[in-house]
Amino acid sequence: MRTGLLMLVLLGALPAFGASLGCPSGALTTSPLTATGATPNTVNVGSRSTVLVFQSTTTAGTATVEVDICCVGTCDPVTGTWAQVTNSPVTLGGATLSAAASVLNPTCQYRANVTACASCSVTVAYACGGV
Asked: Residue 27 and residue 111: Cα distance in Å, rounded?
Protein backbone atom coordinates (compact mmCIF):
# COMPACT_ATOMS: atom_id res chain seq x y z
CA MET A 1 0.00 0.00 0.00
CA ARG A 2 2.78 2.44 0.92
CA THR A 3 4.69 1.58 -2.23
CA GLY A 4 1.62 2.22 -4.39
CA LEU A 5 1.00 5.55 -2.67
CA LEU A 6 4.65 6.54 -3.07
CA MET A 7 4.50 5.70 -6.79
CA LEU A 8 1.38 7.84 -7.22
CA VAL A 9 3.07 10.75 -5.43
CA LEU A 10 6.22 10.41 -7.54
CA LEU A 11 4.27 10.13 -10.79
CA GLY A 12 2.28 13.22 -9.86
CA ALA A 13 5.55 15.12 -9.39
CA LEU A 14 6.76 14.47 -12.94
CA PRO A 15 6.85 17.51 -15.23
CA ALA A 16 4.12 17.87 -17.84
CA PHE A 17 6.45 18.25 -20.85
CA GLY A 18 7.89 15.54 -23.17
CA ALA A 19 8.61 12.13 -21.75
CA SER A 20 11.93 11.46 -20.09
CA LEU A 21 12.99 8.00 -21.15
CA GLY A 22 15.35 5.70 -19.24
CA CYS A 23 18.07 3.45 -20.59
CA PRO A 24 19.01 0.89 -21.91
CA SER A 25 17.43 1.66 -25.32
CA GLY A 26 14.57 3.33 -27.12
CA ALA A 27 13.62 6.12 -29.50
CA LEU A 28 13.72 9.87 -28.89
CA THR A 29 11.37 10.44 -31.82
CA THR A 30 7.90 8.94 -31.88
CA SER A 31 7.57 9.91 -35.55
CA PRO A 32 10.14 11.28 -38.01
CA LEU A 33 11.17 14.92 -37.54
CA THR A 34 10.73 16.98 -40.70
CA ALA A 35 11.98 20.35 -39.46
CA THR A 36 14.64 21.76 -37.18
CA GLY A 37 14.21 21.46 -33.44
CA ALA A 38 14.75 19.21 -30.45
CA THR A 39 13.40 15.71 -30.09
CA PRO A 40 10.15 15.56 -28.12
CA ASN A 41 11.66 13.09 -25.63
CA THR A 42 14.82 13.10 -23.55
CA VAL A 43 16.80 10.33 -21.89
CA ASN A 44 18.10 10.31 -18.31
CA VAL A 45 21.28 8.40 -17.70
CA GLY A 46 22.27 7.02 -14.32
CA SER A 47 25.74 6.57 -12.90
CA ARG A 48 25.80 2.84 -13.77
CA SER A 49 25.89 3.51 -17.52
CA THR A 50 29.32 3.54 -19.12
CA VAL A 51 28.31 4.56 -22.63
CA LEU A 52 25.35 6.21 -24.35
CA VAL A 53 24.98 6.00 -28.14
CA PHE A 54 22.61 7.96 -30.37
CA GLN A 55 21.88 6.78 -33.91
CA SER A 56 20.24 9.26 -36.25
CA THR A 57 18.74 8.17 -39.56
CA THR A 58 16.97 9.90 -42.40
CA THR A 59 14.86 8.49 -45.18
CA ALA A 60 14.81 11.72 -47.17
CA GLY A 61 16.71 14.96 -47.67
CA THR A 62 19.65 16.16 -45.61
CA ALA A 63 19.98 16.99 -41.94
CA THR A 64 22.43 17.83 -39.18
CA VAL A 65 21.71 16.32 -35.78
CA GLU A 66 23.53 17.18 -32.56
CA VAL A 67 23.31 15.68 -29.07
CA ASP A 68 22.62 18.09 -26.20
CA ILE A 69 23.12 17.63 -22.44
CA CYS A 70 21.36 19.24 -19.47
CA CYS A 71 22.68 18.87 -15.92
CA VAL A 72 21.59 22.11 -14.24
CA GLY A 73 18.48 24.20 -14.12
CA THR A 74 15.39 23.04 -15.93
CA CYS A 75 15.75 20.27 -18.49
CA ASP A 76 12.50 21.00 -20.31
CA PRO A 77 13.05 19.69 -23.87
CA VAL A 78 12.22 23.08 -25.37
CA THR A 79 13.21 25.79 -22.86
CA GLY A 80 15.78 23.97 -20.70
CA THR A 81 19.42 24.76 -20.06
CA TRP A 82 20.92 22.62 -22.85
CA ALA A 83 24.50 22.53 -24.13
CA GLN A 84 25.88 20.78 -27.19
CA VAL A 85 27.93 17.63 -26.54
CA THR A 86 31.37 18.16 -28.10
CA ASN A 87 31.89 16.43 -31.46
CA SER A 88 28.27 15.26 -31.54
CA PRO A 89 26.87 16.83 -34.71
CA VAL A 90 26.34 14.28 -37.47
CA THR A 91 25.38 15.09 -41.04
CA LEU A 92 22.85 12.91 -42.84
CA GLY A 93 22.02 12.80 -46.52
CA GLY A 94 23.32 11.53 -49.83
CA ALA A 95 25.15 8.25 -49.20
CA THR A 96 25.09 8.78 -45.40
CA LEU A 97 21.58 7.90 -44.27
CA SER A 98 22.60 6.86 -40.76
CA ALA A 99 25.22 8.16 -38.32
CA ALA A 100 26.00 7.75 -34.63
CA ALA A 101 27.39 9.83 -31.78
CA SER A 102 28.47 8.42 -28.41
CA VAL A 103 29.08 9.72 -24.90
CA LEU A 104 31.43 7.90 -22.52
CA ASN A 105 30.55 7.81 -18.80
CA PRO A 106 27.28 9.69 -19.34
CA THR A 107 25.31 11.35 -16.59
CA CYS A 108 22.47 13.88 -16.62
CA GLN A 109 19.79 14.24 -19.28
CA TYR A 110 20.16 14.16 -23.09
CA ARG A 111 18.18 15.03 -26.19
CA ALA A 112 18.87 15.21 -29.91
CA ASN A 113 18.49 18.46 -31.80
CA VAL A 114 18.03 18.76 -35.56
CA THR A 115 19.91 21.98 -36.37
CA ALA A 116 19.58 21.80 -40.17
CA CYS A 117 16.91 20.12 -42.27
CA ALA A 118 16.28 20.20 -46.01
CA SER A 119 13.30 17.98 -46.87
CA CYS A 120 14.50 15.66 -44.09
CA SER A 121 12.77 12.83 -42.27
CA VAL A 122 14.87 12.12 -39.15
CA THR A 123 14.50 9.52 -36.45
CA VAL A 124 16.80 9.19 -33.43
CA ALA A 125 17.37 6.06 -31.36
CA TYR A 126 19.51 5.63 -28.26
CA ALA A 127 21.08 2.80 -26.28
CA CYS A 128 23.06 2.60 -23.05
CA GLY A 129 25.64 0.09 -21.97
CA GLY A 130 26.91 -0.95 -18.57
CA VAL A 131 23.55 -0.91 -16.77
From this structure: 11
